[in-house]
Specification:
Layout: E1 3-8, H1 15-24, E2 31-48, E3 51-62, E4 66-70, H2 77-84, E5 92-97, E6 100-101, H3 107-117, E7 118-122, H4 133-143, H5 148-161, H6 177-189, E8 195-199, H7 207-224, E9 227-231, H8 235-240, E10 243-248, E11 251-252
Parallel strand pairs: 1-2, 4-9, 4-10, 7-8, 8-9
Antiparallel strand pairs: 2-3, 2-5, 5-6, 10-11
Helix pairs in contact: 4-5, 4-6, 6-7
């Protein structure tokens, strides 16, 4: 069996017709893996007052890739992640996710795009204390106007995947640190996002829970083909990812 990889750059007009012709011409028994850039950041700059935090960042992340971003504090890692995740605006440059140039969207359409296509996991779980684990997971789906019964069914499915079925009705103060973070991961996945951005996701966990969370990211990628971008100081986690991006003083340090 022969395997080939084809990279399709976002926005290439010919790609659909070309692929139809290409697929119809495959010989029986051949397997082809077709991938493309899920995330593309071009010439991203950001300044806070007199401090230039990002100095023209270019970065591409492929579909289904798990990429870690590492570097010293103040290197611009989290700022870059927030800009790619649409939670922060760049001063210049553009970000494209799954072929959609985000700079061209209105605030309303950008919010809708974020809700449907992007999941977030932060160092601290950010669960709402007055809601149960199940309700916390459901919230992004309900914001996206998913019917309550459907949102609940999907949330229960995700909690089961996380090994938390028996904790669904518990509130955050009744959960362990590792359980809270797994609930946060389930919440990030409720809308089947194309991309998950994680900022120091295991930073507040003990060793056992760190290992469990790290394994979970790779299992999710293998099951759902989601793209992960992870900012971390954890050298072990970074060593496990498909690719590690090193940042220093607002630039990618090759």
């Amino acid at each position: 069996m022969s395997i080939a990889n084809i990279t399709i750059k976002s926005g290439e007009i010919f790609k659909i017709n070309y692929l139809r012709t290409f697929v119809s011409s495959l010989r029986k028994g051949e397997e082809w893996i077709i991938s493309y850039d899920m995330i593309k950041a071009e010439n991203i700059t950001k300044r806070f007052g007199s401090l230039q935090v990002l100095k023209g960042i270019d970065l591409e992340v492929g579909e289904g890739e798990i990429v870690s971003i590492v570097g010293p504090s103040g290197a611009g890692k989290t700022t870059l992640l927030l800009i790619m995740g649409t939670l922060e605006k760049a001063d210049s440059g553009r970000v494209t996710i799954d072929g959609q140039e985000l700079n061209l969207l209105s605030e309303k359409k950008l919010s809708d795009f974020r809700n449907k296509n992007i999941g977030f996991v932060f160092q601290f779980h950010q669960l709402l204390p007055e809601f149960t684990a199940l309700e916390n997971v459901m919230i992004p789906a309900l914001i996206g106007n998913v019917k309550h019964t459907r949102a609940e069914a999907k949330a229960r499915e995700l909690l089961q995947m996380m090994g938390l079925s028996d904790r669904a009705t518990h509130k955050p103060n009744e959960l362990s640190g590792g359980e809270k973070q797994r609930v946060a991961v389930a919440r990030a996945l409720i809308n089947d996002p194309r991309v998950v951005f994680a900022d120091e996701p295991s930073g507040s966990l003990d060793t056992n829970n760190k290992e469990e969370l790290h394994r979970l990211f790779f299992e999710l990628r293998d099951k759902l083909n989601q793209t992960f971008v992870i900012v971390t100081h954890d050298e072990h986690l970074a060593s496990l990812t498909d690719r590690t991006i090193h940042m220093r003083d607002g630039i990618i340090d090759d």
